[in-house]
Specification:
Length: about 500
Amino acid sequence: MLTVENITGGYDATRPIIQEVSFTVKKGEILGVLGPNGSGKSTLLKVISGILPSTNGQVLIEEQNIKHFSPKEFARKMAVLPQLHAHAFSHTVRETVALGRYPHQNSWFSTWSEQDENAVKTAMKQTGVDSYEHTNLEFLSGGEQQRTFVAQALAQQADILLLDEPTNHLDIAHQRQLLDMIRLEAVQNGLTVISVFHDMNLASLYCDRLLLMDKGHVKAIGEPHEVLKEKQILEVYNTRVSSYPHPELPKPQVTLMPTATDERESYVVTKEQFKIRDEFVELRTEFPLKTVSSAVHNAGFGWFQSFVNRAVDLSYMCSDAHEELKSYLEQHDFMPSNTVAMMTAVAAKHVVIREFSNTTGSIIVAVTAGVGNAVDVSRAHERVSKPYIGTINTWVIINGKLTEESFMQAMITATEAKVKAMQQEEIMDPISNTIATGTSTDSLLIAATQNGTFMEYAGPITDIGKLIGQGVYETTVTALQDYKRAKGRL
Ligand SMILES: Nc1ncnc2c1ncn2[C@@H]1O[C@H](COP(=O)(O)OP(=O)(O)OP(=O)(O)O)[C@@H](O)[C@H]1O
């Protein structure tokens, strides 16, 4: 365990750079150090590693003050990758890495052991520099040089590793490779790591805890979600960020919010922009719309400029509907990465498109309703049969600026309105013989221009919620009546 106790220090005793810094790092833990330029991150590492003096406080390794270690003893405890290297360009990669073995030798290179050899070879392999071990550093790229210096620090086989921007110069693949490897060393071999990062997202992904420096002081220390708070980042960096979850890991990620004004002009989507083709309904917009949907293609949140509701034959069967739909979009001149698409068994000509407005703004609702597969969701557990095609696809396009909360509430409001329409039209679940709440494959899309009226909430008592409720209900009722008419039931 490394303990930093109330450390104050810097380059000049009369002007301490870091002040009263305290924290502990457990064995096998990775602590990421963040902070703006000049906040004292590198200075902190230099004071911890004894390169710079402290005027107050102490650094302890396993409860022993580092001042009591001999230089070689200390080097076996702690290895340092500095931010700026004294580039020994005339050395080969192997020679540079071998320098890391210095603390393990009695006299300079005279006792090169098998253990030294193995440590150098392993470190070169771990960092992927073994293939150019005999090349002089001057002939390597910045990233390759960086990895050689990391290899040197690893070859030192110290218990604690201090890294100053280890991913400097590295491409995304080498960033991942290096940090995966360091994480593995921490988890499997108990390597303790303190590393300076500029990239908050990488730090969040790979570190157990983060320490945020501000003007030489510790502003915050804790797990990534405790440190990467929007307000805290704004205070320290004077920069607005937005935090979002990593898609696979419980690690927050942040994205920069530019101060530059939005170049998009104010614009609205109108009903006339919808086109009904033979095989699909399409909407193409001038600017991307922020969208959340359960569509087949590009579900979830995103920004998209074209929207497709494709009619397929009742017998449509495909082992990979995602791929098939993607090539269909390409064939029909849609850019798949910029398009949300869903499928229906209802002919495109049966789509019902309506525009609704009140003082808050306007929305357009488009519904295709096929209810051959109607289900009462509260009785669905009684079913064993596989679903067949018969889907209600609902689009709600909103001229306004929604929060994420409103997007979610808009989905609930629209779903409730659809259920009410099913009730109104007495659409039955043929198996339970109760009123259906939808079909087993319904899809919903909410898309907003993100300019115009700010809509913080979209529940039924808000102006926008009222529009969605009325709009989805009335449009769905009409679509259901059309469906019945088409089936000759009315
Ligand atoms: N060699 C030096 N002599 C005197 N002062 C220095 C020296 N190096 C840095 N400083 C000062 O110490 C302060 C902190 O610098 P430090 O390098 O620790 O910041 P940092 O957080 O690592 O910044 P960066 O993100 O830019 O690498 C700065 O105000 C800087 O001017």
